[in-house]
């Protein structure tokens, strides 16, 4: 009883402290990454960042049978899968009675490919995603280029490729498919066919890992010392995805008018990155690590009966370099994904279901486990808190904090095109973000985007948050400002174009001649969500841009940017074909970029008199030449 009272008081004190901190909008008084690290039961702040060493970066000190795992990732998922495979191979060593020499998995980012001595390798497993509009992840570009250009005979090498992607994109899993083909071209021997993974589907990934593990004992791998210096493959000194900079939010502005529930909420944020060493080029994105909502964290802990002040080890992907223990509420808020549910959480729940509570009222919960499809569908439409809430009535779950954390995915950073040019102010990176709020039809609950709600509702001016730069080398202004550019960016697709236009304006101020700069912008209502209206209209008046706007809901007939393109077909064809202009498209991949592409094809057919096939070929070639650049995403 006394223990119970003490436990209850500890939870309450922890919770009250937690709420007091949350009320400022910042959860930590000094707001530094390290402020919540616990040492000897006390919080310590402002620690120096040390050298990060994780178990995937340790050099082997004895002989073994080496396996090379290369991951290429933009958003971190391929790395998660690679680490999962690494762990499975390591645990296979300890469970397999038949082996007397261990397998030594070495898991490296594709950006370190030049450290690989291919002659020394026997088995290479590549786990790689596709990004942008069918391009490799930024860090994997050189590796991809290397594979595309060089053709050594590598017939000694056994390999397999796991290609991650999303079938909503036209270039589904392209990078993995190309990498697989290149290995085949270099006479490498596949141990498995290239496996495609749609939308992070663990129902495909787990069996693939099983197959790899089953195949390994049948492959002859020489026993030797590893030559790779894994510890030396550091991230370098600078700030990056694994070592983000704590940037101060200097300005936050609402860009839209909200007087109806249908209205779009878009914000402009300015981050101070002075003294960070971070630099960017217009077209790049800012990676931001959000905090999960403290109320969600608290609800989850309450549902599981876990005290929020319990200390746990930070996960290996945590962007703190000191690996001292942290409170579980902080771990959940900073490092774990509470939005996307891992199937393992459901399997754990399944094991704890109480059959005695099976009744008509709860039958739907038991049915989820009757087929993989039902489980996948359930997971797609629920967050971690929804799952725990729904199952709380029928499960008797008794999980340790560590067990629960092992059933969650890593919280990933989100990426926003930087909407300001470094030439204007290299110390201030601006972003333009549409705040995601919606009602889930399936469960009739209000939902929100993790990062955009964090930026809008909880991050207050003068707070800091972890950021880094994500390069986008395929989305660049030409260095020659006389080249005509056609910018097509409705909604927040406008963001990188604001930076591009700022640079063209600067060129004019420096008395350079600029070529035609056509901007096609679209939104719902002129008076409500015409982003940066004053700036755009001023640039138009000054002749910096030719602004074309489509307000889809201001008249009976819906008008979109692609309609304006068709109206301007003659002029556009002239700029593209005769004047070798560059087309840029930014925004929604599924509908907008698709419709814009078809409008361009139509223009080529009507104005250029090309057949449909030739028009398709023409724009394909433009894309290859970098004259049709896309920065698109599926929401
Ligand atoms: C902006 C963006 C562009 C993407 N482009 C493609 C694409 O062209 N083809 C594809 O198959 N998947 C595409 N995807 C899906 C990713 O490949 C998929 O989400 C993958 O699991 C991400 O793995 P990563 O976190 O290791 O990068 C894209 C995802 C985003 C966010």
Automatic annotation (TrEMBL):
Transmembrane segments: none annotated. One of its GO terms (cellular component) is cytosol. Gene3D superfamilies: 3.40.50.360, NADPH-cytochrome p450 Reductase, Chain A, domain 3, Nucleotide-binding domain of ferredoxin-NADP reductase (FNR) module, Translation factors. Keywords: FAD, Flavoprotein, FMN, NADP, Oxidoreductase. Its cofactor is FAD; FMN. Residues 67-213 form the Flavodoxin-like domain. Residues 242-478 form the FAD-binding FR-type domain. SUPFAM superfamilies: Ferredoxin reductase-like, C-terminal NADP-linked domain, Flavoproteins, Riboflavin synthase domain-like. This is NADPH--cytochrome P450 reductase. It comes from Pinctada imbricata.
């Amino acid at each position: 009883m006394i223990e119970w009272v003490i436990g209850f008081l500890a939870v309450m004190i922890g919770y009250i402290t937690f709420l007091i901190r949350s009320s400022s909008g910042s959860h930590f008084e000094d707001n530094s990454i390290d402020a919540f690290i616990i040492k000897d039961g006390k919080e310590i702040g402002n620690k120096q960042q040390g050298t990060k060493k994780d178990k995937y970066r340790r050099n082997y000190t004895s002989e073994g049978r080496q396996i090379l795992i290369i991951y290429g990732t933009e958003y971190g998922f391929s790395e998660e899968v690679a680490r999962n495979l690494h762990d499975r191979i390591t645990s296979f060593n300890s469970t397999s009675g038949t082996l007397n020499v261990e397998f030594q998995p070495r898991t490296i980012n594709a950006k370190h490919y030049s450290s690989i001595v291919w002659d020394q390798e026997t088995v290479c497993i590549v786990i790689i995603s596709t990004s942008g509009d069918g391009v490799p992840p930024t860090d994997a570009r050189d590796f991809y280029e290397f594979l595309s250009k060089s053709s050594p005979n590598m017939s000694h090498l056994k390999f397999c490729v796991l290609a991650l992607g999303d079938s909503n994109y036209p270039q589904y899993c392209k990078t993995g498919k190309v990498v697989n083909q290149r290995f085949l071209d270099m006479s490498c021997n596949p141990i498995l066919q290239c496996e495609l993974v749609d939308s992070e589907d663990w129902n495909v990934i787990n069996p693939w890992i099983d197959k790899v593990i089953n195949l390994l004992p049948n492959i002859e791998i020489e026993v030797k010392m590893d030559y790779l210096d894994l510890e030396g493959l550091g991230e370098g000194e600078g700030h990056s995805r694994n070592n983000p900079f704590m940037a101060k939010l200097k300005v936050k502005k609402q860009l839209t008018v909200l007087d109806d529930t249908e209205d779009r909420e878009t914000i402009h944020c300015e981050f101070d990155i002075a003294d960070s060493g971070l630099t960017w080029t217009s077209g790049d994105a800012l990676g931001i690590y959000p905090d999960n909502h403290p109320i969600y964290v608290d609800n989850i802990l309450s549902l599981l009966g876990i005290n929020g002040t319990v200390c746990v080890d930070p996960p290996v992907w945590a962007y703190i370099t000191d690996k001292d223990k942290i409170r579980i509420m902080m771990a959940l808020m900073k490092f774990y994904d509470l939005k996307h549910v891992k199937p393992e959480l459901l399997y754990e729940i399944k094991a704890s279901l109480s059959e005695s509570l099976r009744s008509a009222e709860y039958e739907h919960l038991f049915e989820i486990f009757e087929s993989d499809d039902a489980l996948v569908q359930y997971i797609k439409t629920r967050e971690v808190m929804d799952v725990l809430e729904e199952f709380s009535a029928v499960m008797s779950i008794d999980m340790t904090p560590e067990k629960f954390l092992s059933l969650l995915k890593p919280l990933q950073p989100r990426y926003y095109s930087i909407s300001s040019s470094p030439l204007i102010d290299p110390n201030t990176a601006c972003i333009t973000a549409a705040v995601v709020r919606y009602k889930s039809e399936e469960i009739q609950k209000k939902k929100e985007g993790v990062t955009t709600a964090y930026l809008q509702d909880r991050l207050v001016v003068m707070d800091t948050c972890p950021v880094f730069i994500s390069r986008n080398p395929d989305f660049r202004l030409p260095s020659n400002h006389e080249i005509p550019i056609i910018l097509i960016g409705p909604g927040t697709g406008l963001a990188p174009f604001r930076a591009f236009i700022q640079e063209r304006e600067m060129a004019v101020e420096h008395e350079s001649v600029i070529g035609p700069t056509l901007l096609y912008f679209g939104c719902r209502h002129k008076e409500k969500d015409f982003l940066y209206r004053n700036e755009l209209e001023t640039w138009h008046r000054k002749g910096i841009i030719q602004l074309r706007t489509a307000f889809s809901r201001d008249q009976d007939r819906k008008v979109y940017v692609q309609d304006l393109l068709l109206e301007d077909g003659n002029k556009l064809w002239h700029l593209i074909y005769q004047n070798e202009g560059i087309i840029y498209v930014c925004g929604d991949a599924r509908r907008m970029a698709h419709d814009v592409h078809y409008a361009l094809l139509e223009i080529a057919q009507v104005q250029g008199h090309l057949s449909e096939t030739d028009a398709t070929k023409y724009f394909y070639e433009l894309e290859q030449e970098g004259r049709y650049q896309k920065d698109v995403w599926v929401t």
